[in-house]
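In response to a reviewer's request, we include the raw inputs and outputs for one of the modeled complexes. The two entities were modeled together in a single run.
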Amino acid sequence: MRITIEVMIPLRNRLPQGGRITTLELHPGGTVADALRAVGVPEGEPWNASIAGQLVAATHPLKEGDFLLVFPPIAGGSG
Amino acid sequence: MRGFAGKILRVDLTSRKITVDQPAESFYRTYLGGAGFVSYFLLKEVPRGIDALDPRNKLILALGPMTGLAMPGATRDCVGAKSPLTGGYSKSEAGGFFPMALKKAGYDAIIVEGKADRPVYLRVTDQEVEIRDAAHLWGKTVLETQDAIAAETGDKAIRTAAIGPPGERLVRFACIMNDLREAVGRGGLGAVMGSKNLKAIAASGRWNPDVADPARIRALTQIMNKGFNDNPIGFANKLHERGTGGSAMMLAGNEIGNLPSYNFGVNFFDGTAKVTADAVLDTYGTGMDGCAACAVRCKKVVEIGEPWNVSKRNGGPEYESLASLGPTCGVDDLAHITKANELANLYGLDTISLGVSIGFAMECFENGILTTRDTAGIELKFGSAEAMLQMVELIAHRQGIGDLLAEGTMRAAEKLGRGAEALAMHVKGLEIPMHEPRVKQGLGVIYAVEAQGADHCAGMHDTAYMQDSPAFEHLRGMGATRPLPANDLSDEKIASQKAAHLWNLFLDSVVCCQFVPWSIDQLVEIVRAVTGWSYTTHEALKLGERIATLGRVFNIREGITSAQDSLPKRMFGPTRAGALKNGGIDPEKFRHAVRTFYGIMGWDEETGVPTHGKLVDLGIGWAAEELSAAAPATPLDGGVMA
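The model returned the following structure tokens for the whole complex.
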């Protein structure tokens, strides 16, 4: 299963390989957490993620062709 | 008593009588400062049923146990009064340097009563308190006022909290500016100051509070100064780099529908990248600055030359200003937004209510409720940067259509009729901030139940607490349950919102900045080290509950009932585009969540009236008397406004 993931700055700056948009090959039934792990988002690093504008949780199952946007948590004016 | 001056200054502008109260230490421990003082004095001393602009309204300006210390986040004040916008409880906080100057003058709070017979300003030092003539300052901007007071007193250390022409002209969302950039923004407290003919409070002094454990205070200060960048609780590192409104926050916020655009009607804005903090700093930025003794330094400094002439003295736009004067009005021209923000600071206008009021007027214009006959020929269309900037001037001086919009969206819509009410984005009269309640639905409940109306600093921003993290762990210690989706409105979410609400009210009493990521243990330790009391987390959260309940009693006494614990109807439906085009809050779930909040606060689940037992539990049994004089309670009507 192929998905595309975009990690926004400043979260992107914490990734080992950097890179804005990456295409990933995940096993069928792979989740948001699997995708984050694959691009190296550190454990315990807070994040928000959305697919087509809808916020998704770590356990959300991905499907072929999904575009996953990952960004720092949106708080009160910061993020 | 340690950490406090032990003195509250009371100034009656009608009689020009100046007195000093010296409350017992038990009063300080019960109410602590800031929001605690405001809540107590508003309910105790403001007569029931008066107009907010009546001389009998009181302006309460309160500091906290941290104020005056050279610690990050410590230089803030909390100001309260009956609100000209909502007719209910109102308080607002701001930083800068003025709060430190007032503490150094040797006071913990100022209560201003009555009305001067001509414009005056108050000079407060550790030597004397004077009511001085301000006829020559009336009509001046905040900048002109500050410079004139500094020049005529010859006091280089003097700092001001001042109003501009909107406060004088009783614009219902006029604010009080600490120094030149920090707005005591919400609820129209600048209009209360103007109604008293009080142009400014100017303070200076050399008094320093005695603290119980200065070594511990120094150690905690060092921990935060050195460690805020890596602190996992908050976002101080990002705030340090570019303040609020960073690209990720605004662009991603736009993707998920959190960025209000076109008066909360669309929530997808093509020009978002042009109006982020990064765009501001890249285009007009000259650096970052901060409040007294704060290492976070989250304030953008901007400068634009001809023809805009934006001075770096007046501050750059924060997220709320960028979003409200930008996407909410459909505007993506950064120069116009930056100039509008400067004018709001110079004049003393709450940029949230300002932008939302202009966005409201634009939608009224596009729907034919307002026409060029009403606007003196101005094409008040979404996206017109020129019209947006013209509206700032007209509102500030109550000229033309600006006179109507200066009333705020609730009153303007009532006057206009013809469906305008459905376009007015406010809660209890206070315009909704730039955090969409259809995305952050738990925060939306707080908007609805909070005594002062839609306040984005009063609850938990749901999007930041969707997973286990140090930030969530921080809240868990106060009673938060578990991470949940942003649009969850379960009982567990509401319990977490309550925890965050109480924590924020404690912060507003300390009075400490939310942007400095102190843990609750650290902040409670600071209160201990300052005062020498064996202060506990339990006391801190109890104080939050006491403040929320006092605010609620104040509102009930003023006739504001659970019927106003609601959101605009628009929030229960979809936007025209973007991520929320199939969205909207479920009204049944929302109604249940409001009831749940009442219940866990110890308020009646139908009417929202605090129970006698809860008042006793919070040590405010005296407030029952205020309830007995109130109008009959109204059951919750479903939580959906017209």
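As requested, we also summarize the result in words. Chain A has one domain: 2-71. The interface with chain B takes residues 8-11, 44, 46-48, 50, 52-55, 57-58, 69, 71-79 of chain A (CB under 8 Å).
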